[in-house]
Amino acid sequence: MRIVKTALLAIAASMFLFGSVRADVSLVSGWNLVGNGSTSEINVASVFGDASKYTTVWKWNSSAGTWSFYTPSLSATDLAAYAQTKGYGVLSTINSKEGFWVNAKGAATASNSSNSAGAALLQSDVSVGWNLLASADGKTPTQLNASLSSSLSSNGKSITTVWAWDANTSSWRFYAPSLEAQGGTVLADYIANKKYLSFVAPLGSTDGFWMNVGSVTPTHKTSDPNNAMPVVALVAVGM
User: Fold this and answer.
1) Does 213 fall in a domain?
2) Which of 92, 190, 232, 234 has the fewest CB atoms nearer than 10 Å to its CB?
3) Its pTM surpasses 0.70
4) What domain range includes position 159?
5) Per-residue model confidence (pLDDT) at position 124
6) In the chain, how many domains are there?
7) Neighbours of 164 (CB within 10 A)
8) What distance in Å separates the CA atoms of residue 144 and residue 140, rounded to the nearest whole number?
């Protein structure tokens, strides 16, 4: 009985700290970079299986450096065959703290139908290189860097850049701790010069974002995900 009570208290504490996160994702027509900041996984076919609403869903596997792909317009057999010819994996699940791309045919709300506690981002969730993430920390990239920098550094990692896609303006939001550390308006000036957007609010639990992580102290390496990641190829082929 004591064990059960302890477990319930732990769950309650988690809900208090990170809130109850319902995985409803608001989408606009076209490409949306969204995320699963809850502790529950998303069954892709169940949530995005309506071919009248969704064209494709994509997830980045940072450890393998490959994309996993789903489209409701193909049967399971045809999907597997198509993915194999392109070198993709077949996407079936969006796990906790993973970001993903959705190409929507119009404005839509995708619901995972269940409530769960929010998931906080840990250094163990990120690998050196590009990571497509989500979390319910309710922090700006500046705050995420501050909270993770010590544990990342202890494991030989550091945040190089953070990017989020603003679907309404088709623009990237950008953050680089190395530029922020220079003080003044260095980061703001860089953002303005590149015609990016600043992060003006904390990342939400349904926001997906790219985090580029280096194995050494951050440098002035701010490569655009449009150049570094194969998402451009996805847009080009209309998938």
Assistant:
1) yes
2) 232
3) yes
4) 20-236
5) 93
6) 1
7) 23
8) 6
